[in-house]
Amino acid sequence: MEKNMEKLRFGVLGTSGHYSLRVAGPIKSSLMVESYGVASRNGAKARDYAEKWGFTRVYESYEALLADPDIDFVYCPLPNHLHLEYIKKSADAGKPILCEKPLGMNAREAAEAAEYCQKKGILLMEAFMYRFHPQWVRAAEIAASGELGTVMTTAGIFSYDLKDSGNIRNIPETGGGGILDIGCYTVSSARLLMGTEPERVICTLKRDPAFKTDIYASAILDFGDGRVSTFTIGTQLYPWQRVRALGTGGTLAVEVPFNMYGDVPGRIHVSTGVGRRTIETEIADQYLLEFDAFAQAVAEKRTQAPTPALDAVANMAVLDALFASAESGAWERVRRF
């Protein structure tokens, strides 16, 4: 963005706990974006939220925010079942939209969202913040460079412990459950490090007897030619996360792959025939980088987001196959959209 260009003003759909916990603070230091408007169906709640987090305008409906010509783009952290609806409404209002993952409840919805925005000429990006952190930019470069030889396998784990029945992540009707919430990260990172798409998957999962959401899942992604990725996720487990890649010529591990801190360097451990080293990447906040990257694309009127919407569709297709495999107990092909 040019130095003299004004900051882009974005609006937030909903008084999101995720936004207040992880995004609101880092955004204050952005030279590219301004947290301008927040919408809620509860006016008093929206006003309190705006005062606390520095929003200039408050709207008592999502539609009122979308209709404001002063809003340059929209951030959607609404529950998963509302993503497709408000992606379309944002596109109809001519607003680029940064939408929390996943784009929809399934790959069909994600593909519909991507196609709708493409036809309208509206920029759409799934908010996978981790890909913007320097540690992941470097990890992807190493994997693609051939330093590890051919990456033959990756292993991921991502877990937390959440037993609150009222939390949307524990409500199946709103798109709750472990695979949609955190399995999307283990799949996305595997696809990134492998540099291609899996052909088929097999998955086992357990559902909470009361919530009915998936709380534990383990899976194998088959990329063909002997190349596989494995992962385990859980929403009622000790909180933990790691990602490792193993190739014919070396290994790589990302120490804190997803919920990376914004005030310490990232750490990647690499071992090859030459030796072992730990790479420390620059201190950076991945949410700030994500918003700035999207704003840059909006300002430059690009036709494709930094993370293309079709990547979100491909990721969601794998998640669909995981659910299908858990149901059938067999390998399931990953559908191409």
Describe the overall structure:
With 337 residues, this protein is an alpha/beta fold. It has 2 domains: 8-129 and 289-306, NAD(P)-binding Rossmann-like Domain (Rossmann fold); 134-283, 2-Layer Sandwich (Dihydrodipicolinate Reductase, domain 2). Helices cover 34% and strands 28% of the residues. Helix 2 (43-53) links the parallel strand 2 (33-39) and strand 3 (57-59). The mean pLDDT is 96.
Provide tags for this entry:
337 residues; alpha/beta; Rossmann fold; Dihydrodipicolinate Reductase, domain 2; 2 domains; six-stranded parallel β-sheet
Q: What proportion strand?
A: 25-35%
Beginning-to-end CA distance, first to last residue: 34 Å
- Tally of helical runs: 9
Radius of gyration: 20 Å
Mean pLDDT: 96
Note the main sheet.
Answer: 9 strands, mixed
Number of domains: 2
Structural class: alpha/beta
The outline comes out as globular
The total of beta strands comes to 15
Write down the secondary-structure element order. EHEHEHEHEHEHEHEEEEEEEHHE
Widest sheet: strand ordering: 14-13-12-11-7-10-9-8-15
Which consecutive residue ranges, at least 5 long each, have pLDDT under 50? none
Report the CATH C-level class of the largest domain: Alpha Beta
CATH architecture of the largest domain: 2-Layer Sandwich
Stated plainly, the CATH topology of the largest domain is called Dihydrodipicolinate Reductase, domain 2
Could you state the CATH homologous superfamily of the largest domain?
Dihydrodipicolinate Reductase, domain 2
Question: What level of helicity do the residues show?
Answer: 25-40%
